[in-house]
Amino acid sequence: MYEGVVQDLIDELGRLPGIGPKSAQRIAFHLLAADPDDVTRLVAALTEVKDKVRFCELCGNVAESERCRICADPRRDQTLICVVEEPKDVVAIERTREFRGLYHVLGGALSPMDGIGPGDLRIRELMTRLTDGTVTEVIIATDPNLEGEATAAFLARTLVTLGLRVSRLASGLPVGGDLEYADEVTLGRAFEGRRLIEA
After folding, report:
1. CA distance 151 to 141
2. Bridge partners, residue 81, by sequence
3. How much is the pLDDT for 51?
4. 3-class SS at 152?
5. φ and ψ at residue 68, rounded to 5 degrees
């Protein structure tokens, strides 16, 4: 335990996701030893992001105006929507340069244990986007964990009634991985998603 403002800084840093008490302490002491100009730039960046960044009114992705750059891009395929949990998932998919459609960010995943139900996610907004008939396929790209699977199953049941093509991202063995370290679910998915090898 430290005194006053140093402990306050450690406590605030410790509230950030993925930052434990030791990491918070290391960051706090790094900031104390850092050049004042570096700290000023960090404070300015934090203030600016809170002032300027909002969520896209259409998809829920981070944006600096009413719509994010993806929703504002007329070259994107308007018939495809990829449903993800968080804005960071949009970035991960965009890095692949494989998907040219639009996104819908749910803002999390179903988790009854944490009290997160369908009403806490942006599912109603997704259903509204699908009413005009433009979208023909919804790709569900939630995380391959218990909450992500529950969310995918719920969405699939809901969306199939609309007559849309609903697909789920394939999951399986990572490139460079070893079979002996793969869990049973991952191996099972790899068998389900296997492809024929053309001669």
Report:
1. 10
2. 102, 138
3. 94
4. helix
5. -75, 170
Which residue, chain included where needed, has tokens 């706090």? Answer: 28
The residue among 142, 41, 138, 127 whose CA lies nearest residue 86 is 142
Q: Helix, strand, coil shares of the chain as percentages rounded to 5?
A: 45, 15, 40
Among the listed residues 137, 1, 19, the one whose alpha carbon sits nearest the alpha carbon of residue 80: 137
The predicted-structure confidence for 78-110, as pLDDT tens digits, reads as follows 999 999 999 999 999 999 999 999 999 999 999
Distance between CA atoms of 138 and 104, rounded to whole angstroms?
Answer: 10
Q: Report the length, in residues, of the chain.
A: 199
What are the DSSP E strand ranges found in the chain?
54-55, 62-63, 77-84, 101-105, 137-140, 165-168
> Any idea which residue has 């809170």 for tokens?
50
